[in-house]
User: Fold these one by one.
Assistant:
Number 1:
Amino acid sequence: MTVKEDFLYYLWKFGKLHLQKLETSQKETIQIINLGTHNHHAGPDFFNAQLRVGNQLWAGNVEMHVNASDWFVHHHEKDKNYDNVILHVVWNHDMDVHRKDNSVIPTIVLKDFTDFTQIQRYVTLMNSPKKWINCENEFPVLDDFQLENWLERLYLERLETKSIEIETLVKATKYDWEAVLFRLLAKGFGLKLNSEAFFEAACSVDFSTIRKLSAKQFSLEAFLFGIFGLLSQEVTQEKYYEQLLREYNYLTHKFEYAKKAAIPVQFFRTRPPNFPTIRASQLATLYHQQDNLFSKIITSTSIDELYTILRVATASFWETHYTFEKISPKRKKILSKNFIDVLLINSIIPLKYCYERYLGTSNIEDIFALLRTITPEKNSIIQKFSTKNIAIENAMHTQALLELKKKYCNAHQCLQCAVGNALLK
């Protein structure tokens, strides 16, 4: 049977052993006083354990391997961080491991003290035929209260990952939170296909320029179209394009903006309402209509306030166009509720969380409450989870399930998952 080290961690951490019958590979009795603290970083796997081997009381660290010989595969004999290991816990004892004074480190062969049914559950969960997720036929096994708590924890993990990116931007802008918001919104308006192009362009300009241009919608649109690479096409006989291009060239000279090679934007495989031309114009409108946008967003206390702030349209030219070259039936192109939800989930709510934490006023319950007012996202992963007899009621649930699939299911981290732990029990 093939096992991984995380199964050994699981058995040890949660005491899933015949603790009253433990003995070393040298047949010495072992009494566990303290299993120690699981170390998720470099060094031994469990710190500060306490145990009695025979009549000798020991305090120190515990190291685990599938095979005892992995000690040398990982070169622990050369690492002083392992000098204080008092117990070697292995699945297969293929050799003894010695201290520097040549004495044998006491070793427990874990499979000799593990309940067979526990092993069978692990094998069934981890080595089943290829499935979308390992627990596909059993998910969910938690009651509603346990599942909700696990989903909240998953969303917090996702939020922390997003926070790392935001905190990097905060430092890069010297704590100009308005500039951070602009960069995040630019990335969001670019959607998946053009997010990188919009984001890199937004990072290339000092936000003070955007602030100065926001008084004139046409000037701001011209500048955004220019830095997003939307004025690098060859468009003939279109007056609006020529006006934008002239304005952009004038503004780059005025603000001494060094033109940079923009990442090419994509129209292919994008629905017309999501064309970069439409999204760039809507972003320009937002900053033209909303002075002190960051302050308004941070102080908003309800989802309806945020919808009101973000519900903007394009410049009038784009009511009859999706691209410069072709006229289309007239239609006012206003940000949809679904699109605003995407901005809230991926950009605004994480930013609110980071800013409030920066001020020391963070209340995660307010974040949960806000997310629970947003309708669930729709994508292939969420659709698949919806077939697993689980109630997916809001955006907090969908964000948590996306984190579950990416960080746990895809990585086979079932032993770190509340669902996987419940199945093993």
Number 2:
Amino acid sequence: MPDTLLRHPFMSQSALMQCNVSALVEAMLAFELALAEVQEVRGAMPGGTSGAMRRVLEAHAFDHEALAAGVASGGNVAIPFVKQGRAALPDALKRYWHMGATSQDVVDSALMLLLQPRLAALDALLGRCRTAALALMQAHEQTVMVGRTLMQQALPTTFGVKVAHWAIGLEQARRRLAQVELPVQFGGAVGVHSGWDTLGLDFMDAIAQKLGLATPVLPWHTDRLPIHALGTALDAAAGAAEKLALDVALLTQTEVGEVAEPSAPGMGESSSMPHKRNPVRCAMIRGAARQVHGNTTVLLHAVAQPLERGLGEWHAEWSPLIDSALLLEGALEQAAVLLEGLEVHPEAMRRNLAATGGGIMAEPVSRLLAPVLGQDAAKRISAEAAETARHQGIPYAEALEEHAEVRGRIEAEALRQATDPALYLGSSQAQVHRAMAWLGE
């Protein structure tokens, strides 16, 4: 498959390098060696056994191609991995290898180990986004712009408020990811540590501590809520990043031009139109997020698994789970750069506020006129004056002042204030300050 051209570009390249076949093999080996160490400490094998295993297997080159071929016959990579590991050990150690474990213990624990550094990287990227957003919020808490509903001009808002919503979404996702636990898996064949009695739970807890993973209440072979929690948390973060990218992409449109992506050599160029500056970072974020959403659907459909071992559901989780983390990391790398270098154009925002001849202020004008002229007349006159202002290129307040039904009945200063977008921002500034305080907690 042409993954390097079609799928991998949406992922974090550094994460791809770290999260490869060798890393998975190392993670499986880390689980097996941790299992042997805790069993040795508790007298389940002779002293020195786990150390001897470590010396042999850490120097052993596992055959990756044979592992891949073995998945097709065994259904998971742990089976050929355990076989290769046992074959590499001297006869005196073979019986202590993989003792009391099952394939799912190895794979689930290895995936949790693979994801541990990815969650740390995601947290750092979301922290970068928060820092950049806070700077934008502070700089633009009073930068007036058009607020749009159903893709149409509605009422004034500020760019600071818009950034605050992006920042809150991303920070909520960061805090949710920070609460996700990556539990160790160890239950043996049917999840009850067969042959070990109460020692099994002791082994499980000790392995978790040694590997730096969370300790589950019980083995979770077919209780997949840990995967559900992780997958949906990744998806929430992808959604927050996608919201940022969608808004920025819409604001970069040529006719809008209120923001622009950070410039970089070759970034955003078209294959045929030299004049274009495409919002490529937004496209990459949204492309990655859409793939995460699809992966999450697979994970959600695999939550209910039969009896003591999933039949296809468990197997379906592996790739979507890892891919989602890599895709999200790629999206957040783009989001951090986007927020850190976003070009904001207040002059374009002012221009767009005037695009309707001031009609965006028709609602407060109508409220001003209604007590004097009546509700229906106020609504009609506010719209008529806006059209006059747009066609004649004059200020909205002047068009209102000259309207036959308004002339001399409303003070000019009152009309000026009612048509000034900067005076009709509601709680915008207070919202920015409140968001900044929350983000700083």
